[in-house]
Q: What sequence folds into this?
């Protein structure tokens, strides 16, 4: 059972998100540069350099008329096949994307664990990267000073924290990002799969930390291909197909609906 601390809300009202897709010809710098410069093609090349595209565009509707009303204590699973819009919806909830139409209202701090190393400069040392990530997560310099010791200890990276993170292995970088990102406890937690956090020795304490992280959030929105994991953490769900909600209800009913379709 997750602990409810304050009153957070996350509301979507008839939200639609569309992407512009540009024609291949208009995106190809190579084609523009190697085409003979007739007057017609010269105009096309100029148009490309000025605006980066031509009128040869179309729009793809990634999300279609989605409404949600989440409050403190809610835990929502996003279920659907690849390409259904689950990750896109998480990014919209996090503020990475803005809706083409409709509205979204957030009350409470939001953390998205879709990219735990976002904001970290590869030329920075481990300690500097921790500070960069914490600033992006909204921490003050005073808070960073109080937190950095515990984060460094949790990473188990020792003297590597004094080296540029471009020298790290993938596992080391994930450790650093995971330890830093999960040190800040948000009101609203958005997750795309549970995070793998490096090697076997690190995995067990990472698993314990992520479970605590989930329990302490007020609103949880989680997507995963592991339906049993969704059942463990979420009480309600929506089933997405081609960017639209085709079912909304209790988690068990949603899983049954998804399996039957």
A:
């Amino acid at each position: 059972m997750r602990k409810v601390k304050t009153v957070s809300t996350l509301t979507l009202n008839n939200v639609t998100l569309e992407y512009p897709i540009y024609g291949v010809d208009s995106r190809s710098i190579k084609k523009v540069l190697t085409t003979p410069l007739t007057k017609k093609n010269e105009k096309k090349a100029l148009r490309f350099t000025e605006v980066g595209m031509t009128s040869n565009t179309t729009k793809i509707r990634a999300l279609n008329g989605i409404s949600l009303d989440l409050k403190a204590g809610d835990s929502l699973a996003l279920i659907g096949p690849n390409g259904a819009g689950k990750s896109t919806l998480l990014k919209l909830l996090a503020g990475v994307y803005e809706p083409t139409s409709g509205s979204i209202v957030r009350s409470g701090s939001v953390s998205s664990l879709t990219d735990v190393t976002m904001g970290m400069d590869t030329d920075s040392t481990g300690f500097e990267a921790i500070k960069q990530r914490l600033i992006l997560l909204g921490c003050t310099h005073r808070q960073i000073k109080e937190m950095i010791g515990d984060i460094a200890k949790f990473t188990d990276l020792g003297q590597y924290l004094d080296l540029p993170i471009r020298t790290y292995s993938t596992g080391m970088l994930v450790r650093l990002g995971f330890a830093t990102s999960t040190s800040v406890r948000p009101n609203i937690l958005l997750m795309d799969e549970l995070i793998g956090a490096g090697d076997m020795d690190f995995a067990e304490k990472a698993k314990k930390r992520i479970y605590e992280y989930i329990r302490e959030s007020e609103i949880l929105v989680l997507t995963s291909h592991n339906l049993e994991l969704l059942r463990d953490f979420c009480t309600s769900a929506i089933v997405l197909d081609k960017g639209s909600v085709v079912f909304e209800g209790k988690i068990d009913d949603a899983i049954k609906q998804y399996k039957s379709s």
In short: The beta strands are 9-22, 57-71, 75-79, 101-107, 110-112, 188-192, 219-223, 236-241, 244-250.
